[in-house]
Amino acid sequence: MSGNSRLPAQEQCPALSAVAVCKRYKNTLRPALDDFSLEVRQGEFFGLLGPNGAGKTTAIAILTGLMPPDSGTVRLMGMGYREKHHQIKQILGLVPQDIGLYDKLTARENLTFFGKLYGIKGKRLTEKIQRNLEFVSLTENAARPVATFSFGMKRRLNLAAGLLNDPQVLVLDEPCVGIDAQSRHLIHEQLRDLNRRGTTILYTTHYMEEAQELCGRLCIMDNGRPVAQGSPVALLRNSGMSTLEELFLHLTGKELRDV
Ligand code: ADP
Description:
36% helix; 6-stranded mixed sheet; 9 helices; disordered N terminus; alpha/beta; Rossmann fold; single chain; 4-stranded antiparallel sheet; binds adenosine-5'-diphosphate
């Protein structure tokens, strides 16, 4: 147990925090993140929602240290990416939206490759791979090249790769896009299980029911800023809306974003 986890909840540092973060890509008129602040508490299952172009992927990239902000501060378990990059790598798991698996390699070979990137080796790596293959119900398919996998199986393997370092904080960018109900159900169950066992989860999704079902608190963002934050129940109670979808459309408008 770390010293930090013995502190009362209010004295614990947030698992993830962004304060007044701004980011503008080159040759663009509007910032992708504009004075963006967010706090994910330790142990939370937190949802980040927003229409296309709202800034979710940019926020995830900055919150996980893949990209520096132009200004503002980002911390993971109280640590800054510049000073504590190595320590952060040990406790952060990222499941990106784009599947980064190698089609020609088998599931086991892919996990071996990613495990070595985390610096895990030998028997420890073999055991972790076995455990993670079981976790995503792919043990029987471990020796098959990923090219033969369904999209749902690839998404499950992508999740297994993000879990190889037993992360304390797990960030997932739309992990259930385009998969069938069975794979989605399995991923949901396993994420709930991880969260019950103490893993902090930050989860982006387009599916409102998914957010309502999984997340203890969530943030709806648009135009690079949060527009509402709170538990699904509190957000609905305070807005007088009956569903998250209704609230989402009320806050972000009905205009199409990806035309
Ligand atoms: P979301 O994930 O919510 O769809 P993004 O973070 O991908 O939002 O995008 C936020 C804004 O930044 C959009 O206007 C998008 O067009 C722009 N954007 C994202 N990536 C780049 C990039 N590499 N270069 C220029 N503009 C970008």
